[in-house]
Amino acid sequence: MLYPDSVVGTDSHTTMIDGLGVAGWGVGGIEAEAAMLGQPMSMVLPGVVGFKLSGKLRDGVTATDLVLTVTQMLRKHGVVGMFVEFYGEGMSELSLADRATIANMSPEYGATMGFFPVDHVTLQYLKLTGRSDDTVSMIESYLRANKMFVDYSEPQSERVYSSYLELNLEEVVPCVSGPKRPHDRVPLNEMKADWHACLDNRVGFKGFAIPKEYQSKVAEFNFHGTPAQLRHGDVVIAAITSCTNTSNPSVMLGAALVAKKACELGLEVKPWIKTSLAPGSGVVTKYLQNSGLQKYLNHLGFHIVGYGCTTCIGNSGDIDDAVAAAITENDIVAAAVLSGNRNFEGRVHPLTRANYLASPPLVVAYALAGSVNIDFETEPVGVGKDGKKIFLRDIWPSSEEVAHVVQKSVLPDMFKATYEAITKGNPMWNQLSVPSGTLYAWDPKSTYIHEPPYFKDMTMSPPGPHGVKGAYCLLNFGDSITTDHISPAGSIHKDSPAAKYLMERGVDRRDFNSYGSRRGNDEIMARGTFANIRLVNKLLNGEVGPKTIHIPTGEKLSVFDAAMRYKNEGHDTVILAGAEYGSGSSRDWAAKGPMLLGVKAVIAKSFERIHRSNLVGMGIIPLCFKPGEDAETHGLTGHERYTIDLPSSVSEIRPGQDVRVVTDSGKSFTCVIRFDTEVELAYFDHGGILQYVIRNLINVRQ
């Protein structure tokens, strides 16, 4: 029995599989749990954007440069909730790893998936990764018979799409993205000018508002007995990390070639720059070793630290105390350069305010240069052992050099050996003792796993839809609030409500670990909701941090303390937000957390797909302002009280209907309710998707 494969996964970068012609995308953990319990997934049929590729990449231009260009184009086009399909003669010039790199960043450009139909390149990859010739020819026959195979040697008929974009690959130039968003692309030759503009600009996605007289400030510090200096834009973290790039042989071996040339010329990385290498697969380690290039990466400090999400999700660990003190005491805008896919504020590290996404070879180059305040065309990366200035062009490999090493070093047997080992696991994992019994034994003393309150006081009959009456505004946000702002995964700040909770239970500060590692404990995650240190809440009039105003008293409190006070007083709360609310990771805690804080509705200009679906899953009402309207056009300050009347029966609510929001200041406005399907309305009727599934399971059993 043959049918086209498909997959959903709880990581937003599940979309990488679309590079292989397998339809797939990320969902929140809430939706995934429901799917595991047999609940089908509902969605509105998406529009499909046709993205035509022509030409070929110029020498020295990487797949990362291409994906950052594509991400910027698609964000500008607006593809939230849509499918993107890539086509055109330029496809034959893209390796499967390059396609997977583009598909991987679907969440950053906002699409549900970036799909690459199966062609000869896909079949070659299946052979490379150890699939048998029989299997590959069967796949080809099936797809051809069903008109799903693209053969670029045959004349192509024009396809009909909802909208169109086109890119000539020859126009792609080396670039980075930042300092705060993945789609803020900067061509490499404009980087120095852009950096100076960012220092000047008022605080925002492209600004730090550093006064002119402080821009050339030098922070002197002592690094383990050696005098050292830090300036604005100096690199303190350089990480080859993230699933986007670290499974792509051309950029990984390209980075290793840069390291080799740099070592041969005598270049070094400053010892206080935290360097790391986290491959996307065990295969990468095999081909880096097979090529003989890993030793050069090691020499520059890019040792393998592990596999999986590291710096890109905030797991970079601490930077040296002396460096940290120099940054904080002198208010230095320090930089991180990473080959990741997300660089939102406060995500990579609390002390790196500027975070740039770059290809792995450029990560090595910036580590060597030690600063993002550099024009690689005219300024040297460093000085070689003979005292000669070394420029980026002196250590940059040609596309031919990279292709030669890839051809020689990446072999089918590596994939076979690695894949076989996966199922055997590792001894440590295999030796874990697994408790028997049908019910999980909750340990009340555990600070890692705690029984969540979602099913407390749950009855068999659904509670029905809830409106919102006289709610206070917990937070008032602008655009591009990410799931990292809502529910950080990184380090637990020593002065946060979560830290207080842990210390009260005898957990030492060095054992705090991260929010991501403690996501099995709702007490900590509720306290970590809106705990991002770079949170910009308009109720605070320009102050940055995880605080808000308790409106009735005017007191400034942590978001958690304010939410608990509203809850204890019996008040509902709502959140006001701008465009792209909830972009970033498919983090279900970004919906579970607000629900536990008592948030009943979010009123935004627009929502990112996965987060809107997660809010619905937790029984929170997502509302969109009408096009061209937002909190400011309605003169809302967040000091009002909000009432949203909904019918008492779910049968009287329609997906996408208009809803009136009334405030106590006399202002009222119309929003669109973002329950997009009848199924989502059923979830809302039940108080959330989990309750809906549990009730259905019990009814089936009875």
From TrEMBL:
GO biological process: oxoacid metabolic process
Swiss-Prot/TrEMBL cofactor(s): [4Fe-4S] cluster
PROSITE patterns membership: ACONITASE_1, ACONITASE_2
Record keywords: 4Fe-4S, Iron, Iron-sulfur, Lyase, Metal-binding
Catalytic activity: citrate = D-threo-isocitrate
GO MF, one example: 4 iron, 4 sulfur cluster binding
Enzyme class, broadest EC rank: lyase
Top-level taxon of origin: Eukaryota
EC id: 4.2.1.3
The Aconitase/3-isopropylmalate dehydratase large subunit alpha/beta/alpha domain, residue ranges: 2-370
Domain Aconitase A/isopropylmalate dehydratase small subunit swivel: 499-626
InterPro entries from the UniProt entry: AcnA_IRP_Swivel, Acnase/IPM_dHydase_lsu_aba_1/3, Acoase/IPM_deHydtase_lsu_aba, Aconitase/3IPM_dehydase_swvl, Aconitase/IRP2, Aconitase_4Fe-4S_BS, Aconitase_4Fe-4S_dom, AconitaseA/IPMdHydase_ssu_swvl
NCBIfam families: aconitase_1, PRK09277.1, PRK12881.1
Family: Belongs to the aconitase/IPM isomerase family.
Reported function: Catalyzes the isomerization of citrate to isocitrate via cis-aconitate.
Protein known as: Aconitate hydratase
